[in-house]
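fyi for ur records
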Amino acid sequence: MAVYTYFGGMDGLWTALRQERFVRLTAKLAAVRMSADPVRDLAALGAAYLSNALESPDLYRVMFDAGFGLEDAGAADETLHCLVRAVERGKAGGRFGSGVDPLGLATQSWIIGHGLASLVSTGPLPHQALANGVPMLTALFTGAGDEPDRCRRSVERGWGRMAVPPPESRRS
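which gave:
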C-alpha cells in the first residue's frame, strides 16, 4: 500500500529510485576534490563513478532503465557536466588539443567508466578488470593531445582514489 500512497504505483517508485541514484551520483562526483591537474581529476571522477556503481550494483542498473522517466533530468545531466568542466580545464591548460570537443571527450570518458562498471557489477568481469581503466583512459586522453607519460601518471593518481573493496570483502 505504501508504494501507492507515496509513489502512485510501481512506475512512480521506479522513477523515484532512478532520480535518487542520479542525485547520489552527482553528490559523489561533487565530493571529488579538484586539483591543479585536470587529467587526474577526470580519472578521479571516473573512479567516483565506479565506486558509486559498485557500492549498489542493483540500484546502479536502475539508473539506466530508460523505460522510466526522471523527475528532474538536470540531475542526470549534471553528472556529465562535471566531466565536461574537467575537460574544459584540461583544454584551457594545454593538456588537450585545441580541436578537442569537451562534450565528446567527456562522453567517451563516461563510456569507459560505464562499460567497466556494468561488466564488473554484473559479474562477467572480475573486480581486477577495473585496473584496465588506467590504460584505457590514458589512451583516450593521450589521443586528445596529452603527453603520454604525464597523462599516465595523472590517470594513475586519479584512478587510485577509487575506494571500492573487492566483492568478496563487501557485506551482502
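The chain has one domain: 2-169. thats all i got for now
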